[in-house]
Amino acid sequence: MSDPAWQTIHIHREAPPKPVLGAPCNGCGQCCLVEPCPLGMVISRRRRGACAALRWDEGQRLYRCGVVSEPAEVLGPRWRWLGPLAARLARRWISAGSGCDAELELAPGDRAG
Predict the structure, then answer these.
(1) pLDDT value of residue 6
(2) C-alpha–C-alpha distance, residues 107 and 37, integer Å
(3) Number of domains, the chain
(4) Per the domain annotation, does 25 fall within a domain?
(5) Is residue 52 part of a domain?
(6) Is residue 106 part of a domain?
(7) CA nearest neighbour of 32 among 109, 104, 88
(8) Do the beta carbons of residue 70 and residue 57 sit within 8 Å?
């Protein structure tokens, strides 16, 4: 049986390092790679593991919540009309603008340069 305190996540090589608790979000994506927010759980149909709505922004070299940045794409044509509401909910559930609240630590040496 595996230790529930340990989880392997796959982070884009160019993603910024996780900021310290309370510091502004820098798009490292680690929180959403570990588990989805409540809305992400609905979209991803899972409680653990990477959120299906998480998007890598190649131009800015950081992760973004797809429900916030491109809700129509994430929700698809059938649910596109829910985009504005879903984006508001996602911003609330990911605590947008209030600083990093992810109490995560990478094991030493896990981050390739």
Answers:
(1) 74
(2) 23
(3) 1
(4) no
(5) yes
(6) no
(7) 104
(8) no
Mean pLDDT value across the chain? 87
pLDDT band at 108 (very low <50, low <70, confident <90, very high): low
Q: At what angle do helices 83-93 and 71-79 cross, to 10 degrees?
A: 140
Domain that holds residue 68: 30-93
Q: How many CA atoms lie within 13 A of 112 on its CB side?
A: 6
Share of the chain above pLDDT 90, in %: 63
CB 86 within 8 A of CB 69: no
Q: Is residue 61 part of a domain?
A: yes
109: left (phi over 0), alpha (psi -120 to 50) or beta: left
How many angstroms separate the CA atoms of 56 and 16, rounded?
Answer: 12
